[in-house]
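Batch manifest, entry 17 of 40.
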Amino acid sequence: MHPILFRIGSLEVYSYGVLLVIAFYISLYFLTTEAKRKKIDTQTILDIALVAIISGILGGKLAYIILNLQLYIQEPFDINLWRGGFIFNGGFFLSILTVFIYAKKKKLPFLFIIDLFIPYAALGEAIGRIGCFLNGCCYGKPTKLPWGQVFTLDSPAGFRYGALPLQPTQLYSSFFLFILFLILKETRDHQKFTGQTFLLYLIFYPTFRFFLDFLRGDRLGPFFYNLTLFQIICIGIVMIALAIFTFKKRNNHSIPTNLTNR
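Output type: structure tokens
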């Protein structure tokens, strides 16, 4: 589509980076607005958000570098945060781990925090996937469907498939994540136990990604039969999340609220 939005002299402004900034700003705005409405300490929320964002970016980039190590061995200085090249799983898991460590250190209720944050993580990724679409990464397989998209030759999709129409998997992801954001927001207001919203995310999103991966044109080679390693991981996450969800629903854990303003 449009990997570079515009140029100012020798400065190139990448669509992916712009959408990334927009995603962070919008998600953080709605998150802090809700925190104020619920009388939750907004400075604590901002601190946690900063930890989550930085670790998410680093984790996503590190995972991408590891999976494309040969490329970066040849071009070791070609690490650009603003033109794509992130693995969502790497960013997500490092972000969760970092927030967990931060919450333990500050003696904050981790599951309460994650329940508060996770709908806005879905919203942020929904916006970010539009950046993927403009950048031409995370692309789909060739298709004859009328809504197939042709990407520019200087994009990752165009470099691999040329002028062939491709499945707009980025837009599929964006649409699903917007819906997931609304579902998580609604269910969180009526959840029965701490961690319920987070577990629902771990059930719904990996399930969607498991099936979407069959349409991806940039998927890695099969790991087990026709399944990629990522799809195997998705199955594991869903099974564990379902087991924990069933256990916690039966035990009906209470929800702590000790992040109120002081």
